[in-house]
Amino acid sequence: MLTGGVAILWPRSARAGAAALDVIYSIFALFWVPRLYTAPHYLGVRIPVYIGVLAGLVMELIAFAGGALIYASLATRKSTWPRTLQIMRWIFGLCSIDFGLNHLVDIKDCLVYVPKSMPLGQEFWVIVTGICFVLAGLAILTGIQDVLAARLLALMFLTFNVLALPQFIFADPKNHAAWGGNAFNLALVAANWLLADSMAIHRREAQNQPSAKSLTPLQT
Which of 53, 99, 110, 118 has the highest local Cβ count within 10 Å? Predict the structure, then answer.
């Protein structure tokens, strides 16, 4: 992961770095699949259990999708770009909906992520963010204000970095998981912003030059 992240910083190695990270995050996503069987076995066959396991799986998929967008943007042949973007749109949309459902069906377990000092109470913000996730996912899937929805998702993830996640670092500064969670959340911010720019550029180029190949965000 460290090598892949460093490789993305240089144009010549960015595509290789994105590919390496995609392989890693696809493996991480597969690790969640057995839990679709084991989690209901121990916690009971309930819809919230399945949604919770899927939330862990789709979190890895969003990171995978961000890497896939970078990889496709740097490809020599751009004919596969529209198809790649469409697949990534479905991944982001469905993942966002699952995040939202996880908030709404398992409010108590999500309360830990909301600082107690937040106004209007912890449950209020869990419900609000859950609704925002679902609405954003629907917007991305339907194409209705999809660019705005992806950018607002990036903003919401960034807000988590500012308001929600630092409390875990302050509580235990030596906890590597707390720092890693903040870093991973920043990657989700970048992935959603990349999706938003990709959709915006693709739509603009399709409108201005219907017969020309669409540019990708990294080309611009």
Answer: 99
Instruction: Mention every residue, 6+ apart, whose C-beta is less than 8 A from residue 14.
Output: 7, 8, 70, 74, 218
Digit-by-digit pLDDT tens for the chain (220 residues) are: 889 889 999 888 998 999 999 999 999 999 999 999 998 888 888 888 899 889 889 989 988 988 888 888 776 556 667 788 888 899 999 999 999 999 998 888 888 888 888 888 889 999 999 999 999 999 999 989 999 999 999 999 999 998 888 888 888 888 888 898 889 899 899 889 989 988 888 787 777 765 544 555 555 5
Residue type present at position 23: V
